Every structure is written in C-alpha cells, then in structure tokens.
Amino acid sequence: MARSKATLWTWLGCPGLLGCFLLGFLAGWFTKPTEKTPSSSDVYQNVRQKLVAEMKAENIKQFLRSFTKLPHLAGTERNLLLAKQIQGQWKEFGLDSAELVHYDVLLSYPNEKQPNYISVIDDQGNEIFNTSLFEPPPQGYENITDILPPYNAFSAQGVPEADLVYVNYGRTEDFFKLEREMGINCTGKIVIARYGKIFRGNKVKNAILAGAQGIILYSDPADYCAPGVDAYPDGWNLPGGGAQRGNVLNLNGAGDPLTPGYPAKEYTFRYKVNEGVGIPKIPVHPIGYHDAEVLLRKVRMHVHTNNKITRIYNVIGILRGAVEPGWRPKRTIIFASWDAEEFGLLGSTEWAEVASCKDNQRLIQKADKFSNYPVYHTVYETFELVEKFYDPTFKKQLTIAQLRGKLVYELADSQVIPFDCRDYGEALKGYSNSIYKLAKKHEEQLKTYKVSFVAVRIMNDQLMFVERAFIDPLGLPGRKFYRTDYKRTGDGGHVQWVFSPGQADIVSGKQNVQPFNRKMLTL
C-alpha cells in the first residue's frame, strides 16, 4: 500500500496533548512576577480565580485544530514534530525546563505490502467475500494521505482458516456458557467478539485460553449506535464501515513488552520479540459491523502486522520552586506529554519505570484521561466531530481544563497537601477500622497544632506516604507489575478495590497457597 505509517485514529491522543498545552499555559501564568503578600485564604482564592480566568475556550479550539490537521502515529516523523512543538510552547510558557525524553519500545504497524483482511471461503477454499481494507474517509478528508487501515497492534501474524464461533463480548463467562451450557467448543475455531465490557486484550487472552486459532473484533450497533442518532457525519453514531483500532497486549502494567519493569533505553537488556510480555500468539483483526454481518460462516484471516523496536518521545516540562523541592511557590509539578499511549501506555509507563529507579516517592498525584463514545479509535474521530456534536462552544473542555487547573494549584500551592486520610478510612473501614480511627486522630491533633514549617513538612511527607504504605515491591502473585495491596486490575481489565487482593485470589481459587505465604510476610 502507498500509505505511510500514521493514522487518524491517533487523534484520540489530541485531548491528552491539548491538556499538556493547557497545563503548560498554567505554568506560564505562575512564573509571572507577583508581589509578595502575607499568606491568607483570600490571597489563595484570588490567585486561583485569576488562573482560571486566563483560560479561554477559543485557545482550546485552536490547539485541538492544530493537533488534528494530520495523522501522527507514535514513532513517525509527524509525531516527533508535534512533540517538538509542545516543547517549544512550554519553553515560551516559562517552564524551568522542557525536554524530549526518548525510549526505544516495541511498536506495531500493518504490513504495507500485505494488507490485513478477513475472507469468507466456499467449500473449495475460494474467497467469495473480503472485508474492507480501509474505512470510507470522512467528509473533507478524502485527500488526506498517511491514513493507516484498521488493525490491532501487536497481533500475531498468520492466515488461519476455520469455522466461525460468536462469543458475545469474549468474557470468561461467555466462553463458559458456550462450553458448559451450549456444548460448543472453541478449540481450533476462529471466534468473533464484539467490543465492550472488558479490555480488548482480555478478549484475546480468553480466546487463546479457549483454544481459538484467531479472533475478530467488531463494534456492535447495539453498543455503538444510539437510537434516534444518525451515523457520522450527520450524527455522532458509528458508521457501518468504522472499525475500532487498539492494542491487544496483556501487559499487567509491564510497559514495553521487551523491557518489563525497566526503562526502554539503548543500554537496557531486551527480550526477543517472540518472547515479549503479553504479546498474543494468535491473529487479531478489527472490522466494521457491516462486514461482521457477513461473517457468519467459515472464514479465513489474513493478518500480517509487523512488530518492531521504534523510538518514541515524551515531552517532560518542570517548574521548580522554593520551599520544598519544587516549583514556585512550594512543590514540583511535572508536565508530561506521553507518547505511544494507544500502544499500551508505553510512554507514561517507561517514564514511571525511570522514576521508580530514582525518586518516585516525591510524586504526589497523577491525572489521566478517559474516552468512551461510538467512533472511538476510528477514522471518524475528527476535529469536526467535536466541533459539531460534542462541544461546539468548547466550554465543556474549558470547564475540564479549569477543574484540572484548580486541582494542580491545590496540590502544588496548599500549605498542607489536601489529602484527607478519612477518605482512605471510609474505603477500608470494612477491613480495618484502625485506619479510619488513625485518620480521625490526626484531625483532632490539627485543632491544637502550632504552626511549624518543619512539622508541616513532616506531616506532608506522611500524607504522601499513606498510599505507598500499601505497596508491595515484589508485586501481587501472578501480577508482579501491580504492587498495591488495596486495589488491583481484575480479569476484565477494570480496577477493583480489594483489600489484600493476593488473599482474595487465594480464597477465590485463582492462586495457589505458596504465593500467599510470601504475601503474608509483607502485610
């Protein structure tokens, strides 16, 4: 194919990049010279109000338009240019530093010469139907090049041929129902699952455990087409030709599949590509629901996705301060534009792995983004979609930016870090009343507390370490990259709040008793 390695679906990352721009702008505001005034709640509120007033919906609109003009897949030249653009903007905002930090991670792209598709075959093995190689381009984008076809990153290569079995959402209970209640065995079959309920990588994992040769993923109209709403461009519903992209790794927090637990730098030891963590062993391919309607017979998959080590670039900005290690006036804020997010949170994870080797104990809080709407990860996720349907005035995004700005200001400039230990107590009191009582005890002490900068610093340090008290450096049994003792990601990919999930797995029969004995030593 005469199309280079980039795709409009990466525009999904634009709101994240936009958020980084906005945070950079906030940093610029805080570097403005201000008159020294006595510390008071009035001054605190005044500065925060001025900060919020500086944000404009029109600025957000222009930032988003700038980032969505052309495709910019991770690992491409266009993506690097945008990273440099962010770096330059942050320097203009007045950050003390704004650096490009690179990592060499395993990424995945379609084969230009051998396109991925699914075919229906007759009894003689002839292909009588092939799924679409590309999505129909949205209105106004017909002449845009560099659009990658639909694919699932990190799929195994192969051309399996077998009967097709529909497995609903591909959850564990769906496979159990097929085998135990309906007597349908998926061994040696190609399965087709609809998106939703659980992470797509877990669907692939379940298909592998069920013995399937391959898995096809599609967006079902029942989940992605709201009643009474037209398909894009006349509405915000998913068109029949739209196919949701996305990685199908099963990483369990490992980051780069070849360097789990360590930053993917030039000097880091790497596994071989075929030994990488969480890489599926069967072909995976996404299609639109129009094609899915046809695939209810014997099919053949053609998947030729290539995995290769590629350099990605995070943009890291730092604004330093005076009282504590940090930015003016009190604590450090690190502004980050993460690369390769849709390949498995690689940019952020690699940076965190570096931080864990250095001084991540100074990290107070991290904000992330979420997205869930019908055209998710398709070619129809455009600037016009936002402007026409989701936020025509851009006031919703302005509100989110203002909320995040206030949150950043609270964390960075409050005399006492605004964490309330009672929140942890409320979540955990069913398992441990002592945590809740301890938090209440600190509250009573604060009423008669005399101001002391050293004492406040000590208390802030203790507050920052409350959450880390539940971290097991050896990780959970079977999930060594998950280290928190009061929450974990469940089999469906969703975060579950469980006190001592290692013990919970033992009780539920998901782990044997040997890891439990080791786990008890850490509690």
Short structural summary:
The chain is α/β, with parallel strands linked by helices and 523 residues long.
Low-confidence sequence ranges: 1-12, 364-371, 516-523
SSE string, helices as H and strands as E: HHHHEEEEEHEHEHEHEEEHHHHHHEEHH
Strand content: 5-15%
Largest pleated sheet: 4 strands, antiparallel
CATH class call of the largest domain = Alpha Beta
CATH homology superfamily name of the largest domain? Zn peptidases
Gross CATH architecture of the largest domain:
3-Layer(aba) Sandwich
- Give the CA-CA distance, first to last residue: 56 Å
Average pLDDT for all residues? 76
Spatially, the strands of the biggest sheet line up as 3-2-9-4
Counted by DSSP, the helix tally is 16
Provide a descriptive summary of the structure in words:
With 523 residues, the chain is of the alpha/beta class. It folds into four domains: 8-108 and 310-413, Aminopeptidase (3-Layer(aba) Sandwich), CATH 3.40.630.10; 116-125 and 151-254 and 269-304, Glucose Oxidase, domain 1; 417-466, no CATH class; 471-523, no CATH class. Helices cover 34% and strands 13% of the residues. The chain contains 16 helices and 13 strands. The protein has helices at residues 14-30, 41-53, 57-67, 77-93, 172-181, 200-209, 221-224, 289-292, 346-357, 383-390, 395-413, 421-428, 433-447, 453-466, 501-508, 513-520, and strands at 97-109, 117-121, 127-130, 161-162, 164-166, 190-194, 214-218, 284-287, 299-302, 306-319, 333-337, 487-489, 495-497. A four-stranded antiparallel β-sheet has the order 3-2-9-4, with no helix packed on it. Strands 5-6-7-8 form a four-stranded parallel β-sheet. Strands 1-10-11 form a three-stranded antiparallel β-sheet, sandwiched between helices. Strand 7, helix 7 and strand 8 form a beta-alpha-beta unit. It is globular and about 85 Å long.
